Amino acid sequence: MMLNNQAQNGLKGFLSRKVVFSNLTTFNLILLLLPVAIFIGAVVAKGGVIAAGALMVLFVGIPVVLGIVAYPRFGIAVYVIAAFFINYAAKVVPEGVPLGILMDAITYLLVFGFFLKKKYDYSWSYFQNPISYLILIWLAYNLFEAINPASPSILAWLYTVRTIGFLLLVFFVFVYHIRSVEYIRFLMKLWLFLALLAAISGFQQENFGLLSFEKKWYYSNPEVLSFLFIEGHLRKVGIFPDPTTYSYNLVVAAVMCIVFTFQDISIIKKILLWLAVPFFLLTMLYSGSRAAYVLLPAAMALLAILKFNKKILFFVAAAGLLLGFIIVAPTSNPLIKRFQSAFNPAKDASYNVRIENQKRIKPYILSHPIGGGLGSVGLWGRKFAPNSMLAKFPPDSGYVRVAVEMGWIGLFLFCTLMFVILKTGINNYYLIKNPELKNYCLAMALVIFVFNVGNSPQQALVQYPSNILFYLASALLIVTMRLDKELQENETNKVLIN
Question: How far apart are CA 446 and CA 300, in angstroms?
Fold first, then answer.
């Protein structure tokens, strides 16, 4: 192992000395790269777009693929970035280009790299925790749904489990490869930076107008436009595929910023985090998603319970008073009016329609203990079984969808998994001693809570990046506890040695 490290360091040092820090003059560097430039130009001129794509695959795609497999930390970062931008990229590329395959490919590469490394590591101690066990049970139940006699199409199951199954496996990739506080710190910064870009995109759409390709996407489908145009206001989605995903992720980012201000960081960083909170919440309002409006108060209530001290209670109480004033204050602003309506659901027509739909489907759920089959509701249901009753049913709620597709047994398992994840996060928060890791654990527990609350009125865990971020947060609940134990053991060993 030491020889391998020395060899790697030697190679890196050689490249650094000869390429990066060499004394090549500008003229010599031009002479060195000129043949490459001529070759690329000739190939593109001869082969056109296809040749340019092939060169991109050769010079960019292959190194990225090798990097994802060989360097998991790089792969995880690429995965998170791609999850944020995949739907935005779909608005730019020509219709019909299967960009979803890109996310599937990155997922498969991460899982492949994980099993490749586990071939030489026979320890499974990282996965001996309740969340891992429940995720394996949930994965097994998803696979069992393949033989559900009520399923209208095995293809609907196949297309659905293709994504769900591998996403569940990515949880283990996160648990195994995230091994340092520094890398968690990097992931948190990356997460907030990407959320900030999403908020800026929504701000641009609301205040400066839509870009040409955004406008084309909005107006390309009349059905989508009717959903996005409400009460004279065009709901904004930023870089995301729909208002729900956009608004939920901005609330999550705001909650993370609030929690991170409790860390021992510089005043400048705290000010920046506090400035980010109102910006995230303001741009969240542009989505017009009423389901998102209750998420922050819910998260703050749990925060007050978990961090039970005078400062937090005062902050939450002050925020509650401000919220109460906004709810009852008379206004002509359509965004504020829609915000106020979220706290009076009885007068909301769409809420009442959802309640009626749930009452109508309840007898079916009770009479089908394992549901109507994975993928029988939504896109794949409409594609592979368009004449079935479930294909025409609008589930709205993520929990209702699970109950319809996987029955009350599946709903019980899913709720058990969610409970165990949240319980583990809260327990670990109180057990962790390192202040920074404790803070990260608290933030991730609140993220899990926000997604779970949001999964009741809407489907919170079906779109990128929410589905990936949920399992990343779940994995970090385990990782922070493990790293804290390692730090405590190192401190104990130092004391014994001294």
Answer: 9
Query: Which pair of structure tokens corresponds to residue 114?
Result: 């994980």
Query: Which residues face 233 on adjacent strands?
Result: 230
Residue type, position 4, single letter: N
Please, which pLDDT band fits residue 346 given cuts at 50, 70 and 90? low
For the purposes of burial, counting CB atoms within 10 Å of the CB of 123, is it exposed (0-12), middle (13-18) or buried (19 or more)? exposed
Contact 311, 303 (CB under 8 A): no
Answer yes or no: are the C-beta atoms of 398 and 411 closer than 8 Å. Answer: no
Report the 10 Å Cβ neighbour count for 121: 9
Helix or strand run (H / E) with residue 288: none
**Domains of the chain by residue range:** 36-64, 88-497
Helix (H, G, I), strand (E, B) or coil at 234: strand
Cα separation of 30 and 308, whole Å? 64
Interior/surface letters 37-69, b for 16+ CB within 10 angstroms, e for the rest:
eeeeeeebeeeeeeeeeebeeeeeeeeeeebbb
Whether the CB-CB separation of 480 and 444 falls below 8 Å is answered with yes
Cα angle for residues 34, 39, 41 (degrees, 5° grid): 95
d(CA 188, CA 326): 31
Helices (H), 288-348: 290-293, 295-306, 310-328, 334-341
Please write the tens of the pLDDT for every residue from 243-274.
999 999 999 999 999 999 999 999 999 999 99
Which tokens is 214 given? Answer: 């955004």
pTM of the model: 0.85
Query: What residues contact residue 53 under an 8 Å CB cut-off, 6+ apart?
Result: none
